[in-house]
Amino acid sequence: MQRAVSVVARLGFRLQAFPPALCRPLSCAQEVLRRTPLYDFHLAHGGKMVAFAGWSLPVQYRDSHTDSHLHTRQHCSLFDVSHMLQTKILGSDRVKLMESLVVGDIAELRPNQGTLSLFTNEAGGILDDLIVTNTSEGHLYVVSNAGCWEKDLALMQDKVRELQNQGRDVGLEVLDNALLALQDLGAGSGGSSPGNSYSEKPRGEAGRAGSQGQPAPGGRPLPVWE
Q1: In which order are the strands placed within the sheet that holds 126-134?
Q2: Which of 31, 72, 172, 176 is 20 to 30 A from 186 (CA-CA)?
Q3: Where do the GCVT N-terminal domain residues begin and end (predicted)?
């Protein structure tokens, strides 16, 4: 946790809260909620914690929602998304597995390039959205929604077992890492105006702050989706 907090401080970004419509206030009668590695950081900066998908997350800081929104649009902000389901897809048949579950050409991704995609059922119906990154470390890094954690994980685990029974080289590992998302869409160029739209499917470069060959704090940090 200390590393995550120090990265935020050195980058000089402002952490933002989740939209209130997605959350509900905490109460003593509710279930025990999980905490992200930045939980104490949120409290120290006046975060109002609420329940979301089994996690305790900030819905608002000391600033108003309007001020937070304008800051993000005019500059950029970091969001704690450590509650999201993070998985590694391993093995030489990892691309085959992922392309059997999502729409999109995963095989064409360059090292450390990611793409927004969709989990679909056998009839082509949408189950959830996700981001798939082809890492330079020999695995696919998948991030999907906390609200669909059990469903998405079961979908991937079932496909792993199916392919393993066919003799395929594939595996899955669930990660428990801190994860920060950098927003605004124009963060790399000084901000964007509301309502911007893009005709192409979102693509981005991903990296871990300070890791070998990746941006360090003060450079281009963490995943940036364009």
Answers
A1: 171-175, 85-90, 140-144, 126-134, 113-120, 203-205, 224-225
A2: 176
A3: 38-179
| Domains observed in the chain | 32-83 (3.30.1360.120), 84-182 (3.30.70.1400)
DSSP-assigned states of every residue in 185-203: TTGGGT---TT---SSPPE
Mean pLDDT in order along the chain per 10 residues (226 residues):
42 50 46 89 90 89 84 85 94 97 94 94 92 95 93 96 97 93 63 43 48 34 29
Q: Are 54 and 154 in contact (CB under 8 A)?
A: no
Give kind and range of the element (H or E) at residue 99. helix 94-99
The CA distance from 133 to 216, in Å, is 19
